[in-house]
Amino acid sequence: MKRSQFIGISAVLGLLMLAQAWAAPGKGPVKVFLMAGQSNMEGHATLPTIDFLGEDADPARAALLKKFKPDGKTLVTRDDVWVVSNGAPFDKLQPGLGARGDAAKPGDKIGPEYAFGYFMGEALEEQVLLIKVAEGGTSLHQNWRPPSAGPLPNTKPEEVGDMYRALVANTHDTLRDLKKLFPAYDEKAGYEIAGLVWFQGYNDMFDETARKDYGKNLVMLINDLRKEFKAPGMKVVVGVMGVNGPLNEGTINPKQKDVREGQRIVNTVPEFKGNVKAFESAPLLHPKVVELTAGEWLHTRDFKKDPLTAEEKALLQRATSNMGYHYNGEGRFFILLGKTFADTMLELMRSK
What we know:
Elements: H1 9-12, E1 30-37, H2 39-42, E2 45-46, H3 59-68, E3 81-85, E4 88-90, E5 109-110, H4 113-123, E6 128-134, H5 162-176, H6 178-181, E7 191-199, H7 208-212, H8 214-228, E8 235-240, H9 254-264, E9 276-280, H10 287-298, H11 310-319, H12 331-350
Helix pairs in contact: 4-12, 8-9
């Protein structure tokens, strides 16, 4: 999704005059959660790959498929979760709000918003609103650079912080027009910006300064957004980048280790204790998928000596739909990722 393709909130208000089955909101203020990052926050897992979740060796994980396909055929929606994704409003959480060519229409992919929204809606009595702003190929160092990080040398000001500004503008526009976007919104009850979900990091790997400054920039991003939205209590969950699994750091990929360590820093900041938490996303990838797609890189399998079998090729056909940097487009992974985001967010919300 290119920034030029973001739908302005004002541009879609006319479309919302059409008759729709708006959900009655839950009790209390709407709980608003911002979701931000790059292509893997958009999400590149096609819908059929979600079924691979049912093959998980962990019975509890395998059983999750029934939550999302209760009848074994149709993916669920939730009326108690509204979504604004890259400027496009949807009156219910539904599959297909991952990366897509036309922001105004659901496509055939999911990102972490699907499971995150499902489990937040399940856990909270209040109406939930997700505001997702994401674009592939963007870095924290430049595109998401928060104001307090300052300018970048030899870079045009308009090219610095463009995604940060997009998130801020999209959020303010959405919250200003909530009643028009979602007629069931109770203006008396209002809303609360309750949390931020951050999943990003790949592009920062390729610049030494970006890698080394990642943790510092992430801390400033969190503080600047809390200040911008006057939400000092906003909880923040960070998914530590997990491309190609747990082994893809250290001597194998020191660049990814630098970014991962930068993301882990938030767990050591004293003022973030109990209100910001980073978790490891790498273990959520299916270990067999990692072996079959990155074994050569990770030195865990020599495909010249041990080529893929017909059974393994069939497994990849069921489980994956994209490249390794997109977590292989593994629907199973994005369901588990979204659930972990939700579990961690709820943990922070319960903490005193």
